[in-house]
Design brief:
The complex is a heterodimer of chains A (246) and B (457). By secondary structure, chain A is α/β, with parallel strands linked by helices. Helix content of chain A is 24%, strand content 29%. Chain A is built from six helices and 14 strands. In chain B, strand 14, helix 13 and strand 15 form a beta-alpha-beta unit. The chains are: A alpha/beta (246), B alpha/beta (457).
C-alpha cells in the first residue's frame, strides 16, 4: 500500500443498526494501516476538508434517516461532485434511501431524501420484510456470489426506467420484489439494502473493495475462517430446500 | 351480532380447556387462539379484573412479572395472569378465558399481565391497564422488532392515555414513551462498577434528543442504561421518584428511597440487570399503595430466582445453565458480561444457533455483530465449544473479538458438545442455551453432569 487509505464513516452515532459498523471494523482489522474518520451530526463532514478513499454509511432508524438528510442536504453539491468524480461510497441497509427521493409511509406521512438518485421508497411500519439474499456481483472480469439478509420496512422503486444496480439477484428480492437488480450503482457509489454485515459475510467482496480503494491485494483478517463461513452459506442459500422468507 | 360471536368464542374456548385437561395439555394458548379465531375482537368483550397491571419492555419483564405475581399472591390476591401462556394477545385472551365464569364474568379482582411490546397494537385497544411498568427498551430480534425506537413508537401510539406509567429513568428510550401519560420514574443511583463511557457495541441513544450533541453520563451501567445528560444544552434524564441506593452485593441488599421514606430490600441476584428488576417491582408496588415494610416482608419470602437456581456443584466442578436469548444481542451481551465477571476458570458451551429458524429457513446472523463477544476474550475462559448450524459464524465472530483460536473447539451437533470439554480441576462449565433450545440445553447439561460425575474413559 503506497499511500494511506482513508475511510469516512457518516454518522456512526445513528447509522449503526444490525451490526453494520462491523463492515468498516472488518476492513480496519484486515488492513490496520487504514485511517478511519467519523463524521457526526454536529460539525462539518470530513469530506469537506479532504476527499476520502471510501465513504460509508450504515442502517438507520427512520428518525435517523431524517436527521442524516437534514444534515447532508447542505453538502449535496459536494456529494454529487464526489460521486461523479468516482469516489467510492458503500451505503448499506436503508441508508440507501437517504440518497434517493421521497419515502412515502402507509400512514400518509412523507420524508424526503437528498434526491441524488431517481428512486423513491414505500414504507409500511407494520409490515417488516425479512428474507435471505443470494446474488451475483460482476465488475469487469470479477464475478462472485453474494450472500446476506434483507430486514426492512421499505422497498425502493426507480422513477421511470431502472438504473444500474449493484447485485444481480438469484434468490430474494431486488431493489424491490418486482425486479432482480438490487441496489443502486453510479460510478463507484454502491448502495444496497443487503445487510450481514455484507463485507464480513462476503470476503471476496471485501477483498475486491479494498483493492478498489487502493489498499491492494490484502489478506483479510481470519480470511480462511471467513471463507469457510461464506462458502457454507453460499451452498446453503443455493439449496432450493432452504426457505428464504421469514 | 359480535357479542354473540364473543359468547360462542368463550364457550368454545371453555370446552377446549376441558379437552386440553383430558389430554393433559394444560397451560397452552390454544383457548385464546381459538377464541380470537371465532371472535377477532374477543378482548374487547372479555370481562377483565377491576385492577390491571401490565409489565412490558425488552428485558426483565418475565422476571419482574413473576416477582410481582408472587408478592401480590402473598398479599392474598388471587391474581389473574399469563405466566403459563404467552405474552401476546392470544396469551392474554387465554388468561381471561381461564379467569372467567361460563357466563363471562371475571373471577379475579386483580390482573397482572406481561405484555410483549409489539402486541400493544392488538391488546391495548381493548384493555386499559391502571399501571404499566416499562422495564427498558433495547434492540431485540432484528426480524421482528426492527429497532427500539420503532417499538417505543408503537407503545406511544397504543398505550391508553389513562394508564399510569412506571418508567425506568435510566433508559432514555423508555422515558420517551407516551409523553402525555402520567408517570413516575425509578432508577439506581451511582454504584460500584459504574462507568462513564459506553463500552458496548449497541448504544441506541447516543445523541441529545434536543440538540443532537453527544450525550454524556453521570454514571453508566451498560449500553445506554445510566443517567444521561447533555453537556451542551443542559438536557438531563428525569429525576427518580424511586431511587435504588446503597447497593450492597456482598450482603445482597439494596435500599429504595422515595418521598415518603426508605425501604431495605433483599436482592435476589447480584447482576445489575436483576437489581433493576427489584427496584422496578418496589416502585410499582409503592405506586399501588403498599408500604415499604409490607414490600420488605414480601421480598424476605421470595425465592431466589435467576442463574443461581441452575447452578449445580458436582465434585470439584460446577455446572451452570444460563439462558442467552438467541438473536438478541443485548441480552446475550449481558450474559457474556456477567460470566466474564464471575470468579474461577471456565468453559462455555455456546448453543446460540436459533433452532426454530433452522427448521424453516436460515438464521439472520446480523445480531452477532451487535453482540459483545469481546467479553468472552478473558484469561479465565479456557475453552469455548462451538456447536450447531451457525458454528462457523460464531467461530469467525469470536476470532474477530480477539479470542485465540486455541481456545475454540467444535462439535457439529449440540448434543456432542460436552465431549469437547476439558473438565479441568475446579472447572466451571456454562451451558448457554436459547429460548427455543431449553430442552436441548437440558439434555446437553445432563451429558455434562454425567461426564463430571463419571469422568472420561
Amino acid at each position: 500500500m503506497d499511500k494511506t487509505i482513508r475511510i469516512e464513516v457518516l454518522f456512526p452515532e445513528i447509522a449503526n443498526l444490525y451490526g453494520d459498523l462491523e463492515n468498516i471494523s472488518y476492513l480496519k482489522k484486515s488492513c490496520p494501516e487504514i485511517e478511519v474518520a467519523e463524521t457526526h451530526l454536529v460539525g462539518e463532514p470530513c469530506f469537506m476538508e479532504k476527499t476520502p478513499d471510501l465513504i460509508y454509511m450504515g442502517t438507520l432508524t427512520e428518525r435517523g434517516q431524517r436527521l442524516a438528510v437534514e444534515k447532508l442536504a447542505q453538502y449535496k453539491a459536494k456529494i454529487v461532485e464526489m460521486i461523479e468524480a468516482g469516489v467510492h461510497f458503500l451505503v448499506t441497509g436503508n441508508a440507501l434511501e437517504v440518497f434517493g427521493g421521497k419515502i412515502t409511509d402507509t400512514n400518509g406521512s412523507e420524508d424526503c431524501g437528498l434526491e441524488i438518485f431517481p428512486i423513491h421508497a414505500k414504507r409500511d411500519m407494520m409490515k417488516r420484510f425479512n428474507s435471505l439474499y443470494l446474488a451475483k456481483f460482476v465488475d469487469g472480469e470479477t464475478a462472485m456470489d453474494i450472500v446476506g439478509y434483507k430486514s426492512q420496512f421499505t422497498h425502493s422503486y426507480w422513477d421511470g426506467e431502472a438504473g444500474e444496480g449493484v447485485f444481480d439477484t438469484v434468490r430474494g428480492p431486488g431493489l424491490n420484489p418486482e425486479i432482480t437488480k438490487e441496489g443502486v450503482r453510479r460510478n463507484n457509489f454502491l448502495g444496497t439494502y443487503v445487510i450481514g454485515p455484507v463485507l464480513v459475510l462476503n470476503p471476496p467482496f471485501a477483498k475486491w473493495l479494498l483493492k478498489e480503494i487502493g489498499a491492494g491485494d490484502v489478506e483479510l483478517a481470519f480470511e480462511k475462517e471467513a471463507m469457510e463461513a461464506y462458502e457454507a452459506r453460499v451452498k446453503e442459500y443455493s439449496d432450493e430446500n432452504t426457505g428464504f422468507y421469514y | 351480532m359480535e357479542i354473540l360471536r364473543y359468547y360462542i368464542a368463550l364457550w368454545a374456548a371453555k370446552l377446549s380447556i376441558v379437552a386440553l385437561k383430558i389430554t393433559k395439555h394444560n397451560g397452552t394458548n390454544f383457548p385464546g387462539v381459538l377464541a380470537l379465531k371465532i371472535c377477532p375482537r374477543f378482548l374487547k368483550y372479555a370481562a377483565k379484573p377491576e385492577k390491571i397491571i401490565a409489565v412490558t419492555g425488552t428485558n426483565g419483564k418475565t422476571t419482574t412479572s413473576n416477582m410481582l405475581l408472587d408478592m401480590l399472591t402473598m398479599d392474598g390476591h388471587n391474581v389473574l395472569n399469563n405466566k403459563m401462556g404467552s405474552n401476546i394477545n392470544s396469551g392474554i385472551a387465554s388468561s381471561l378465558i381461564y379467569g372467567s365464569t361460563i357466563f363471562g364474568k371475571c373471577k379475579h379482582k386483580v390482573g397482572l399481565f406481561e405484555i410483549d411490546e409489539r402486541s400493544a397494537v392488538r391488546v391495548f385497544p381493548y384493555m386499559k391497564p391502571d399501571y404499566m411498568l416499562i422495564t427498558n427498551l433495547s434492540r431485540d430480534s432484528i426480524m421482528r422488532n426492527g429497532h427500539p425506537e420503532y417499538i417505543g413508537d408503537i407503545l406511544t401510539k397504543y398505550i391508553p392515555k389513562e394508564t399510569k406509567l412506571v418508567v425506568n429513568a435510566d433508559c432514555l428510550i423508555s422515558c420517551g414513551i407516551a409523553p402525555e401519560n402520567e408517570r413516575v420514574y425509578f432508577g439506581i443511583e451511582e454504584m460500584e462498577g459504574d462507568i462513564k463511557e459506553c463500552i458496548n457495541l449497541i448504544n441506541d441513544i447516543q445523541i441529545c434528543p434536543d440538540c443532537h450533541n453527544k450525550l454524556e453520563y453521570e454514571y453508566l451501567r451498560y449500553n445506554h442504561i445510566g443517567k444521561a445528560y447533555c453537556p451542551v444544552c443542559g438536557f438531563k434524564a428525569p429525576e427518580y421518584d424511586y431511587a435504588g441506593v446503597n447497593v450492597n452485593v456482598a450482603d445482597m441488599t439494596i435500599d429504595v428511597k422515595d418521598a415518603e421514606g426508605t425501604g431495605h430490600y433483599k436482592l435476589l441476584n447480584e447482576s445489575v440487570f436483576n437489581i433493576y428488576n427489584v427496584v422496578s417491582a418496589v416502585a410499582l408496588l409503592r405506586q399501588m399503595g403498599y408500604s415499604h415494610e409490607k414490600i420488605e416482608s414480601f421480598f424476605e419470602k421470595l425465592n431466589i430466582v435467576g442463574s443461581r437456581l441452575h447452578e449445580e456443584k458436582i465434585g470439584d466442578k460446577t455446572l451452570i445453565k444460563l439462558l442467552a436469548k438467541e438473536k438478541n444481542a443485548f441480552a446475550t451481551s449481558r450474559v457474556f458480561d456477567y460470566i466474564s465477571t464471575l470468579p474461577g476458570d471456565k468453559e462455555i458451551i455456546l448453543m446460540n444457533s436459533c433452532q426454530g429458524d433452522m427448521k424453516h429457513w436460515s438464521e439472520n446472523t446480523c445480531w452477532l455483530y451487535d453482540c459483545d463477544f469481546e467479553f468472552l476474550n478473558q484469561d479465565c475462559i479456557k475453552n469455548i465449544v462451538l456447536c450447531g448450524p451457525r458454528r462457523l459464524d460464531h467461530k469467525l465472530r469470536l476470532l474477530l473479538a480477539g479470542v485465540p483460536e486455541e481456545k475454540l473447539s467444535y462439535s457439529e451437533k449440540e448434543i456432542d458438545a460436552p465431549d469437547q470439554l476439558k473438565l479441568f480441576e475446579n472447572d466451571n462449565v456454562y451451558v448457554l442455551y436459547g429460548t427455543d433450545s431449553i430442552g436441548l440445553g437440558n439434555r446437553v447439561a445432563a451429558k455434562v453432569r454425567e461426564l463430571m460425575k463419571g469422568g472420561r474413559d
